[in-house]
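> call design_seq(struct)
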């Protein structure tokens, strides 16, 4: 069986629609309303193409190209507010993340045959957990009235697991992305409790317990593999900074400190992650830009529908 697989090779059935991740773009956005509006107007057609044929098409039609900053997919997830669409989007995003986490842990188990037995065993344990998470979120999507494939899938999680160095894989996937998942799951549990949805609160609580173990696998193996190799340890730290910055926009990240502490993050590291995230544009800037984009989008639609029919007739 082939080692070191690329994200394009991931197998999916016909329900899924693959799209390119926008994280590089988000990372490069300045904290400037006008500039963000200009950038998004320039790529509006591409964004429309990305969402066409999915449930996001209607959201785009309503809100325009900056829709993601007006829905829950950007910035901090609220503990007690989600529209049904926001909830379905979030559950679907987590679901595809779980599928990729299963694939990533499976590949990491397979790609490094020389690693210690205990490492293989931990990755196998993670595969087992992630398979269960895929099933749990598939059921939660159903519970929220959604369906698999209604939103496009980006492969950012699997991409973080494509490094040739296992230390960078564990840093990117287990420490950064699964750490991020802990923050999101914590807020989803609080949301479930606040709105009286015990199914969400309890199911996500079970998943979160496993994720803590996965983050701990990352913390412990990165420490173990880089022991006595400060250069490699520094590379891991640098990669962690890059990944944390790439995935935190809206700069209001609220870390699940208690859970992260349990998973091997020190107070110093958590302060650092919050400081790294603060470099991204402010949430308020993104929302303001998205409102301007929405108003222009709506005004344009009105203009088109107000044009007299004969203006479309051939001359
Ligand atoms: Fe998971
Ligand atoms: Fe996990």
């Amino acid at each position: 069986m082939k080692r070191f697989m690329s994200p394009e090779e991931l197998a999916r059935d016909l329900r899924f629609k693959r799209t390119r991740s926008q994280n590089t773009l988000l990372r490069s956005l300045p904290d400037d309303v006008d500039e963000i509006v200009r950038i998004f107007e320039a790529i509006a057609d591409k964004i429309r193409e990305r969402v066409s044929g999915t449930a996001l098409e209607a959201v785009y039609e309503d809100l325009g190209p900056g829709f993601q900053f007006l829905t829950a997919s950007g910035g901090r997830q609220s503990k007690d507010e989600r529209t049904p669409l926001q909830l379905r989007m979030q559950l679907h995003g987590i679901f595809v993340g779980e599928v990729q986490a299963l694939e990533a842990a499976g590949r990491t188990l397979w790609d490094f045959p020389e690693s210690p037995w205990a490492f293989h065993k931990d990755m196998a344990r993670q595969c087992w957990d992630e398979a269960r998470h895929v099933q749990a979120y598939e059921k939660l999507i159903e519970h929220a009235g959604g369906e698999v494939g209604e939103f496009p899938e980006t492969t950012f999680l699997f991409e973080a697991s494509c490094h040739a160095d296992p230390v960078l894989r564990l840093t990117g996937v287990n420490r950064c992305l699964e750490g991020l998942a802990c923050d999101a799951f914590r807020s989803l549990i609080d949301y479930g409790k606040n709105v009286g949805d015990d199914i969400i609160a309890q199911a996500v609580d079970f998943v979160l317990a496993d994720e803590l173990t996965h983050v701990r696998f990352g913390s412990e193996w990165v420490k173990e593999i880089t022991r006595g190799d400060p250069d490699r340890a520094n590379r891991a730290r640098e990669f962690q900074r890059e990944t944390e910055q790439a995935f935190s926009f809206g700069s209001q990240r609220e870390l699940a400190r208690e859970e992260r502490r349990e998973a091997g993050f020190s107070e110093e590291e958590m302060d650092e992650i919050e400081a790294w995230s603060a470099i991204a544009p402010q949430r308020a800037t993104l929302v303001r830009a998205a409102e301007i984009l929405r108003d222009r989008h709506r005004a344009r639609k009105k203009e088109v529908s107000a044009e007299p029919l004969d203006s479309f007739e051939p001359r």
